[in-house]
Amino acid sequence: MPPDYTPSPPNLPRQLLLQKFYAMLDEDIGFGDVTTTALISRNQEAKARLFTRQPGVVAGIDVTTTILEDLGFSVIQKMQDGSQVEANTTLLEAQGRAVLLLSIERTLLNLLQRMSGIATATANLVQKARKINPKVRIAATRKTAPLLRLFDKLSVIIGGGDPHRWRLDDAVLIKDNHLAFFSNPSQAIQQARENVSFTCPIEIEVTTPQAAKRAAKAGANIILFDNMEPKEIAAVVEVIRQTHPSVILEASGNITPNNIEHYANTGVDVISVGWLTHSVQALDLSIDIIPIPTEEE
Fold it and tell me: Is 175 designated active site?
């Protein structure tokens, strides 16, 4: 792994982002925002200020701008994705129809708070781990909220982490439930190699040092140490580095901010952390909406 690795958010299709957000919005609005339509004139304009209530790393600013502009709002970004901010920092200002602002604010805020929470947690883990091992990557997993994976993984990248597999078609990852159908892991690796493109990496989970050594010998591109103790991982990493230096080594399983430094010290290339997305704590953000006086007023 290159020591100067810096993840770049993918250039995701605008239409894909909008499609997913409008599906979320449909869930919240249903047949209409009865409160807002009963109280606010359709022609009323308003300004919105999106700001932080606590410090953290913000994510989702570009996504929010894309959504608001598609809905006809004028937008001024005050901060960029990945910015480390303090409490009461203005992230974005927008102006447009008040009815729309009031109807979308909760859904938009929910998404942005989640994304920023994931980015903040990722940035903190990256900082802790790289104090021990400057080359290690902190990666996400597929333990994401259904239909939110695109935004969850994007948030990890913005926080300085690696998305790992976006979907099942990215790479082969042979897990324990796959291995139940084979007499030994080497057989599974061989069969995978015969049935996928040569461009597709093959990763396998192992739970013992012996299994890790056999996986390296069988030709796995990536070996994932699953729920193994740091001392045990460190010992086998040293052996595999000598015999199969090109194999990527990954640690995973019950890794948290409290123990990540121990895993960083094992010498692995990657530490994947399901906690980043399955137990995310949202960053506290808020939106202030201010009516713009009409000509009659």
Answer: yes
135 is catalytic: no
Q: Is residue 35 part of a domain?
A: yes
Q: How far is CA 133 from the centre of its chain?
A: 21
pTM recorded for the entire structure: 0.93
Give me the catalytic one of 49, 143, 193, 213: 143
Domain at 193, CATH number: 3.20.20.70
- Among the options 152, 162, 203, 226, which is catalytic? 226
pLDDT by residue, tens only, the chain of 297 residues: 434 555 666 777 888 889 999 999 999 999 999 999 999 999 999 999 999 999 999 999 999 999 999 999 999 999 999 999 999 999 999 999 999 999 999 999 999 999 999 999 999 999 999 999 999 999 999 999 888 999 999 999 999 999 999 999 999 999 999 999 999 999 999 999 999 999 999 999 999 999 999 999 999 999 999 999 999 999 999 999 999 999 999 999 999 999 999 999 999 999 999 999 999 999 999 999 999 987 655
Q: Is residue 92 part of a domain?
A: yes
Q: Which of 53, 131, 175, 217 is catalytic?
A: 175
| CATH code of 69's domain | 3.90.1170.20
Of 33, 152, 205, 250, the catalytic one is 205
Q: What are phi and psi of 5, to 5 degrees?
A: -60, 125
Q: Is residue 7 part of a domain?
A: no
Question: How many CA atoms does the CB half-sphere of 147 hold within 13 Å?
Answer: 10
The single residue of 106, 135, 193, 213 carrying the catalytic annotation is: 106
- Cα→Cα distances 167→111, 161, 163, 242, Å: 21, 17, 10, 32
Radius of gyration of the chain (CA): 23
Is residue 109 located within the same domain as residue 144? no
User: Looking at the 3D structure of the chain, how many domains does it have?
Assistant: 2
What's the domain range around 60?
A: 14-123+281-291
**Per the domain annotation, does 2 fall within a domain?**
no
Distances (CA, A) of 104 to 33, 107, 109: 9, 6, 8
106 in active site: yes
